[in-house]
Design goal:
Its cofactor is Mg(2+). Monomer. Catalyzes the transfer of a dimethylallyl group onto the adenine at position 37 in tRNAs that read codons beginning with uridine, leading to the formation of N6-(dimethylallyl)adenosine (i(6)A). The protein is α/β, with parallel strands linked by helices. The protein has 2 domains: 230 residues, P-loop containing nucleotide triphosphate hydrolases (Rossmann fold), CATH 3.40.50.300; 59 residues, Histone, subunit A. It is 51% helix and 9% strand. The protein has a 6-stranded parallel sheet with strand order 3-2-4-1-5-6, sandwiched between helices. Helix 2 links the parallel strand 2 and strand 3. The longest helix has 24 residues. It is globular and about 55 Å long. It starts with a strand and ends with a helix. The model has no long low-confidence stretch (mean pLDDT 93).
């Protein structure tokens, strides 16, 4: 087989991407690339739903807890490393599985990143200082003014994304969105997106259950250990920032947990909005039997990619 294929398993958080990715990897005797940016960091285990040791043992995984929160690591870094790894794995395998909850990171591997201007580190430092002194809302308002188009689609609760967009706006004196959707990089493989679908009520129920299980597993204790480093970009994320508020005495634990559930549900909604724009996704039911899903994937490979 000359055609190399990347199977990109996507879907909202807590829907079962890890499980499906392992099933596909075992069926096709191949390896898994994680494109979940929160699972890159070894200090963040419980709150990012890192695959269990048993799951990791079922197939070879890459980009799971391979970095420290103290190391700078960008989507550009991930793209380069993932493409280099794919080149190596495709020498021995015709199919590789990628599992991702981070749409930007998945798309970076599939089609490359847009070409942005180089940013002056002073601008980034100023924006981080603005975040610390004036809060997230000040960044949101500035982005709405400078780039109303991107403001409509960006995760407004993610300071890293807001700062990234604003630093480009300030550097180039033009909207961040004007750099998006440029001609993409050529890849030496084809991609089949496999999306896991479920009713919204089911997704929200699974999210609520997962958060409860995380708390039972010791998420609060993990957050307390990380609290001294709460200003790091990696920790500006759902599951940790709400517990930091509790640790600082700004709310009760019950309220913090309810906020984690609410913000995770919002995140899942944004994930689905991102995915619905991609009409090439093969959607499979979350509760389908593994054999049924494998048959759907095999049929699509035959008709679309190997025809």
């Amino acid at each position: 087989m000359n055609t190399k294929v990347l199977l990109a398993v996507v879907g909202p958080t807590a829907i079962g991407k890890t499980s499906l990715g392992i099933q596909l990897a075992k069926h096709f005797d191949t390896e898994i690339i994680s494109a979940d940016s929160r699972q890159f960091f070894k200090e963040m285990e419980i709150g990012t739903a890192v695959p269990s040791k048993e799951e990791l043992s079922e197939a070879t995984h890459h980009f799971i807890q391979h970095k420290s929160i103290f190391e700078p690591y960008s989507v550009g870094d991930f793209e380069k490393e993932a493409i280099n790894l794919l080149d190596d794995v495709f020498q021995k395998k015709d199919i590789v599985v990628m599992v991702g909850g981070s749409g930007l990171y998945v798309d970076a591997v599939v089609s490359g990143l847009d070409d942005f201007p180089e940013v002056d580190p002073k601008i980034r430092k100023q924006l981080n200082q603005q975040l610390e002194e004036e809060g997230l809302e000040s960044l949101q308002k500035e982005l709405e003014q400078r780039d109303p188009e991107y403001y409509k689609t960006v995760d407004l609760d993610n300071p890293h994304r807001l700062i990234r967009a604003l630093e480009v706006c300030l550097t180039a004196d033009k909207p961040y969105s004007s750099y998006l959707n440029q001609p993409k990089a050529e890849r030496r493989f084809k991609t089949l997106y496999i999306g896991i679908d479920a009713p919204r009520e089911t997704i929200y129920q699974r999210i609520n259950t997962r958060v409860d299980l995380m708390m039972d597993a010791g998420l609060l204790e993990e957050a307390k250990k990380l609290y001294p480093h709460k200003e790091l970009n990696a920790l500006q994320t759902v599951g940790y920032k709400e517990l930091f508020e509790y640790i600082e005495g700004h709310c009760t634990l019950d309220f913090a947990v309810s906020e984690i559930k609410k913000n995770t549900r919002r995140f899942a909604k944004r994930q689905l909005t991102w995915l619905r724009k991609n009409d090439a996704i093969l959607w499979v039911p979350y509760n389908a039997e593994p054999k049924e899903v494998l048959q759907m994937v095999t049929d699509r490979l035959k008709t679309d990619l190997y025809a």
